[in-house]
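User: Can you predict the 3D structure for this chain?
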Amino acid sequence: MKFDKNRAEPYPIIYCPDEQNARETAEKLAGRLQAACGLPVLAVPQEKSRKIPAEGGPVILLGRAARAVLPEERLPQGDAFLSGAAGGAYVLASEDRFGLAYAAQMLLDRLGRAEQDADDSLICGRVSELPLDDCYRRAVLLARELYGTYGSWVQKHAASMMGESDRADIALVDALIRRMGERTLVLSPGSSSALLRGFVVKLDPRDYSRVTRLSAERHVLIPASFAASYFGRAVAADADGYADLTDLCSRSASHRLDLDASGDIAVAAPADTPSYDDRDAVINGYSNAQYLDRMQAFFHNPVLPEPVCSVEQTRVEVAGSRYESEWIFDYTQHTYVNYYSPAVCTVQEPDGRTAIYLSHEISELRNHAEIATCTVLKRSTDGGRTWEQLAHVDDMRWASLLELNGRLLLEGNRLSTGNVQLAIYDPAGGSLRTAELDLQVAGSAPCAAAVANGRIYFAHNHAVISACIADDLCKTESWTVSNDPNRLITRADYEARTGKRTDPKKQFCFEEGNVVLGPDGALYAMYRIDASPTWGQAAIFRLSPDGAVLSPVEECRGIIEFPSNQSKFCIRRDSRTGLYLTLTSFPTAAYTHQRNVLGLAVSADLLHWEAVEVLLVDRQMMNTMHSVYAHAFQYVDFAFAGDDLLFVVRESAGETCSYHDGKFVTLYTLTRYTEHLRHIGSGAEEKQGMHRNSL
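Assistant: Here is the predicted structure, written as structure tokens:
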């Protein structure tokens, strides 16, 4: 099939307007064909196209437009793709986004190698069976051009876990972001947030109580600082520091303001863009009414509740990985870097400054498996603005960090052997001592270790290990190993005590434990429970002072209600209030591993926990379940620093491969943290009695 690059009239890429994102995909593909092959190409909706086959040369049929020349039974379904000539047209079709990109890449390759000649062979197959060759890799890059963020690995693989309503919503949000562009601002009276450039942003980053107002005259009022930033110039403000956005837009030749009749949504947009006034008008395949309803949903999303404090504004990026484009669709064949296991502690320096010590892994992965890792130790003396790397420990992962007798102690596992691994750093001399302990007690995470009774205690998945701090911690014989908590409570026990059913094909285990000193002076080990598809519980055991014996806490038979999803948590006791604090993933969506909402939970007695504050939520404009699969604030560790709480996060944000990624290590500060705890701690005995009766 011959294509002539010198032809004056453009070749049409015919798309079906009813197909999600078809117009945008056709336009981007047209641009790609013109750039790569010099072909004049134009995207044309199916109802405006010429009769097919066309006289004067071939046409390109994209996606469902292929029905014009192919019977329904020949169209690809699921992850299948079709590329080649049929009925006088060149057909590119697939129900799978990457499949369509692969079909398009085959056309590009054919045109590129044979003088604009695309041969007539019709090739079809399944995406899951494609060879990982150069064509595949080029198709990965093309998919990123065609689909952007929503063409990610998450979208490709999460589709099987999403219902049709989620897939339809992804397309709507995708179209909404295109409709909004760079300069459209969406507001909702009573909300402290706005929608801008694909993100939920705050009107006043310093004061979350400042919201969009609607005056008696139905004028939209917003903080003047935000209005000035949006318009790029100074604006007049009233006594409360608010600007009249309605007045600003009416006086401007470049902008206008549309206020929905309900008064729930206000849209400021460039004057030359289509208005939202006509609710029935259709743009990008959706009506204005659909766009306005979806905008409103961003302001009232129970899965992503609004924080009331501005801790998210304190974000400091300690480490960040920049993924290459091809990893987004398929990173199983590429080595990439993730940052795991962040841990933090604070130490008062001799000069009076507070030093922040932070450790994290640098892990090289391929196909979800670690092929190399190390743990680094860093220090900051300016509140986290700058960092100095102090130590580098090869093959160490999952390390907890604490200060012990003037030295920094890292305790984790060795990747290559699974043994416990220690690293002791002396800040005074800068020396580092490492040791591998012949202890096979499985993994751990940066969780709380306890120092009591002259001993130090760490929880691993299959035991608590402890040693006298006066002994040489770098010798295996110094350590005592407890019994295995996983042998004390069975799957059947868990199901009987909670009334929940677990998937027998998936693991049931306790992992990533904390050792803490209870209010009664006894030692306790608290573990995360992996019991898919359930969440909302933790396991708690008493530990004998010698560290040898774990036993389920009798009052609750070892299982407590705990406001967390299946994600690691760290528990520390606040010396000021005596309360126990944790920062953990709040379960707001019906998904076991949701980690895109981080909150503060508190307990007076370790048995009864209350979720008291939402701190971080995903701010990208996305479908809710897509956000759950793609983004996370997870594996949090924290330390007290005077009136503040410092916490480090393994963060999956922006363009990611999955929620599980450690794309960033970030540092946040919760200032005056005790103000969030004032109403906690009363009635613990009454709650304890109720708890006994509930399980």
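Residues 325-332, 682-695 have pLDDT under 50 and may be disordered. The first helix runs from residue 22 to 37.
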